[in-house]
């Protein structure tokens, strides 16, 4: 009780919008409906990400949508992985038969070393097993689950929707579309063909397709009537709360100088609305946070004295107008990524992830990408009862 009071006071001090205090009149979303809970990479807080097991668990936990990231195999099959590089999320490094596939590749201009899905056939990918890439999450499932194809994810979605009696959706992300095109492995037509086969290539289908690039969304707009989402990335939040942002990679290639931050301006949002239905900003675009600068280095300091520097050493600053501006442009807003571990939670939330969800729900977000769907659903229920 005491903790809740302190937390509420801390949040009130931030002058969060009235919607946070008085939600009773309805959700402050674009359509007035409750915000969606999108299972980011499946129930990735609990099981190795992007596995059928992780997606199924997410639906058990109450998620409305499952989120597969898509990369291509050498033979042009879409599989669910966050990166083309398989080194962190599979056991490929321990497979002697693939030792000679290790190489250095530039992805979106940045060189990395590892084993790349674009060098493996689907048959070879199917011999690999998923592993947990985060050291602070459960490791006991490593080596148990296979890497699913997008078609398998769509079949699972249909089965889970049937079995649960709920409208379960799928929220695929096209990963590095310009890079895939350069490998002669473009993602878009294959993705739409899979949606068609699954009976999901219609305007009212429970499908969102997302991308950090604009060019492929514009191309997709001509190929499919499903909802499209433009993701807004940033590299970091400076100690003073200012976002450090890069550019969509298709802009880099095309010589367009605009940054992601430039694309959050009202004029740019109206432009985005011509090829997308919503935006998916990194959370700090909506509410950034500030830390305390270390006197010697100028870098963020360990404010709470636990010998590490993380989100717990930062305090939220005043929300931006992005949700309001996006809604005004007719775009919904799905924010990423919500995680339970205290190291990801600003000091204001005092280690309670429910408080973070409630803050963003109060701001009017239309959906949240969460590694812990159960926590997001519980926070939504608690808020609906207020
Ligand atoms: Ca994603
Ligand atoms: Ca600290």
UniProtKB/TrEMBL annotation:
Molecular-function GO term, any one: glycerophosphodiester phosphodiesterase activity
EC number(s) reported in the record: 3.1.4.46
PROSITE patterns assigned: GP_PDE (PS51704)
GO annotations of cellular component type: periplasmic space
InterPro entries: GP_PDE_dom, PLC-like_Pdiesterase_TIM-brl
Domain of life: Bacteria
Entry keyword annotation includes Hydrolase: yes
Cited SUPFAM superfamilies: PLC-like phosphodiesterases
Domain GP-PDE, residue spans: 35-380
Primary enzyme class: hydrolase
Pfam families, per database record: GDPD (PF03009)
Catalytic activities: a sn-glycero-3-phosphodiester + H2O = an alcohol + sn-glycerol 3-phosphate + H(+)
Any one GO biological process: lipid metabolic process
Presence of the UniProt keyword Hydrolase in the record: yes
Record's keyword terms, sorted: Glycerol metabolism, Hydrolase, Signal
Protein name according to UniProt: glycerophosphodiester phosphodiesterase
């Amino acid at each position: 009780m005491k903790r809740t009071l302190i937390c509420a006071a801390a949040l009130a001090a931030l002058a969060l919008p009235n919607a946070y205090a008085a939600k009773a009149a309805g959700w402050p979303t674009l359509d007035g409906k409750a915000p969606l809970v999108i299972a980011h990479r499946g129930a990735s807080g609990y099981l190795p990400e992007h596995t059928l097991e992780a997606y199924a668990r997410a639906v058990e936990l109450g998620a409305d949508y499952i989120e597969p990231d898509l990369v291509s195999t050498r033979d042009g099959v879409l599989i669910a992985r966050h990166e083309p590089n398989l080194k962190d999320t599979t056991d490929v490094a321990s497979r002697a038969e693939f030792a000679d596939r290790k190489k250095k590749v530039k992805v979106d201009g940045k060189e990395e070393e590892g084993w790349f899905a674009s060098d493996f056939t689907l048959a070879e990918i199917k011999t690999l097993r998923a592993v947990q890439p985060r050291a602070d999450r459960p490791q006991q499932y490593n080596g148990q689950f296979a890497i699913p194809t997008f078609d398998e994810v769509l079949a699972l979605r249909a089965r889970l929707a049937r079995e649960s009696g709920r409208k379960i959706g799928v929220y695929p992300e096209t990963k590095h579309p310009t890079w895939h095109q350069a490998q002669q492995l473009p993602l878009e037509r294959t993705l739409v063909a899979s949606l068609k086969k699954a009976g999901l290539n219609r305007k009212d289908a429970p499908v969102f397709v997302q991308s950090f690039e604009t060019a492929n969304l514009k191309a997709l707009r001509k190929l499919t009537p499903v909802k499209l989402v433009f993701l807004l990335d940033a590299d970091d939040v400076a100690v003073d709360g200012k976002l450090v942002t890069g550019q969509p990679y298709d802009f880099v290639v095309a010589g367009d100088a605009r940054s992601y931050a430039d694309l959050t301006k009202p004029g740019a949002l109206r432009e985005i609305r011509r090829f997308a239905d919503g935006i998916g900003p990194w959370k700090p675009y909506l509410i950034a946070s500030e830390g305390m600068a270390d006197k010697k280095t100028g870098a963020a300091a360990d404010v709470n004295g636990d010998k590490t520097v993380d989100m717990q050493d930062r305090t939220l600053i005043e929300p931006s107008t992005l949700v309001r501006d996006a809604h005004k442009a007719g775009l919904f807003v799905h924010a990423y990524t919500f995680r339970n571990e205290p190291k990801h939670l600003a000091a204001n939330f005092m280690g309670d992830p429910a408080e973070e969800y409630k803050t963003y729900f109060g701001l009017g977000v239309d959906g949240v990408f969460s590694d812990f769907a159960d926590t997001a659903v519980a926070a939504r229920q608690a808020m609906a009862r207020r």
